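User: I'm curious whether this sequence folds into something compact or stays loose and floppy. Could you predict its structure so I can see for myself?
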Amino acid sequence: MNMFKITILAVGKIKNKAIAELINNYTKRLSHLAKLDIVELPAVSFSDSSQAKAKQSEGQAILAWLAKQTGAEVWLLDERGKNLTSTDLAASLTKSSAKVIMVVGGALGLAEEVKQKIKFHLALSKMTLPHELARLILLEQIYRAATISQGIDYHY
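Assistant: Here's the prediction. I'll summarize afterward.
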């Protein structure tokens, strides 16, 4: 049985209690199907006039964290990224022998520097999603991919 090795690198904490509860549910479901880590980098507070600076600071924190990782595939969540079906995601994760790090931006999105340095961009939707919902949807899709790859009835 090939267990996925995935780290979700996200900016900011989940503040919505209902979303946090659902995220915890999928994290528990995944515990016997994947080696999953969730790393939360602090969000930088901002005002209307400091959004660009905050986004740049968050981008630098992402790149600094990623620089300490070795031998991992890095995927960036981006609405302009590649659209995969759930079965395509399962196949991609199954093929990967390395740990996969999936980067989720914060409320302001991702700095251009981060977008340029990470080669593979994955879209959950062509629409922009709030970062908390993006993390929930991502976890559900990782769970779905794990059940597909291991032949567990969930995806019909």
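Summary: Strands lie at 4-11, 34-41, 72-83, 99-104, 120-123. DSSP finds five helices and five strands in the chain.
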